[in-house]
Amino acid sequence: MKNERSFTEELSSRQMLEIDACTQCGECLKHCPVQDVTGNPSVSPPEKIRMFRELIRSTDGLKARLFGPGEANRKLLDDFARAVYECTTCGACGQNCPVGIFTQRLWPALRKEMVKRGLGPIGVQANLPKVVKNSGNPYDKPANDRYRPWFPEHVAVAEKADMAYYAGCTGAYEAQPMVRGDALVLGAIGEPFTMLPPEEEVCCGFPLFITGQHDLLKELVDRLVEGYRARGVRTLVCSCPCCVNIMSRDWPAIYGQALPFAIRHISQYVASSIRAGKLKLNKELRERVIYHDPCYLSRGVGVIEEPREVLRSIPGITLLEFERNGLNSRCCGSGGAARKVFHENAIKMGRQTIDEAVEKKADRLILSCPACYAKVNEAMQGHDRQIRITDIMELVAELLKENEGEKVGG
């Protein structure tokens, strides 16, 4: 394939340095979830960087500068595209990189380069722009069904308020017990909150961003930001880690200026409400629970302690930890849109999470990500080990309902 553009066009100065800095030491292989389930070094983090270095040399190396860009090896391009899209973009490799490569941001940038060259994304991922454009969500589900049937009828939503709740596409369509729990807990706290109408709460843009397909991002972000601005929103609360990540990290740059509101994960809001006495959990739960840190919540935006604070506020509970937790948590297999194409990898990763939870003798596996919620539940189907899976706000709402009956019911 003729090189008509540099392979470095989508990279920041930092990312250029990161690609050069990789020593191929292999430390990241101990933490890569794809390596855990495939053992395939051709899709490993060091190999991705090695291949991309070769591609850069074809356009920016000394020979290319002297004699002009050469032909890019098509097999190398295809192998690299597959490797970068099989990755879950969980960032565990970068978290443990001796030279500090920020891979959770590097891999999406390299995917964007593949899209520019017509070599990505892979499989059904390529349909995302058309689907999101037509339906407002990556699942191609009707906008009118976005809040049905999960939104509790007794929870009031204000026309305008300082705070807004964004349900997100995966929660609304794939993990409804999770977002129902969010709404019930927000209703129990009692502070007014608003939401966009279902046809206006479109995709946050993360599925497009993470697959390297950026053309629609500005349209989606502007639409959402202006919608919340018109409702007087000063704080936007969301439970999906991927949504929170792109909102806080990328929306300001895409929007072109500072957002008119702050972004908070729902665990941050609920933990502060518990501390302030606005939410009281009196119902005992004498169970051993184990909490899984979502990659884009812990490594992505640094929300680690707040979910644990919420869980520890439940009387009688015993909170267990995975061997890898917090910044070093193991990906459950749902990240980076890889689950849409590399289904078997995702199921194996999800079962690793289930297996460890069972081995730790937990009564419940607590999640706080809709993609994890959907995929780990799927991974448990037909698996020889079983455990009860509950979203953190689903659990809080369950306890509140037992305490207060219809006041938080719906």
Tell me what the structure shows.
- The chain is α/β, with parallel strands linked by helices.
- It folds into 3 domains: 13-120, Fumarate Reductase Iron-sulfur Protein, Chain B, domain 2; 125-272, no CATH class; 281-407, 3-Layer(aba) Sandwich (Rossmann fold).
- Helix content is 48%, strand content 7%.
- The protein has helices spanning 13-21, 33-38, 45-60, 62-67, 74-86, 92-95, 103-116, 128-135, 169-174, 176-189, 206-210, 217-230, 241-249, 251-255, 266-275, 295-301, 305-312, 343-359, 370-380, 392-404; strands spanning 163-166, 193-194, 235-238, 262-265, 288-291, 318-321, 364-367, 388-391.
- Helix 19 (370-380) links the parallel strand 7 and strand 8 (388-391).
- The radius of gyration is 22 Å and the shape is globular.
- The relative contact order is 0.12.
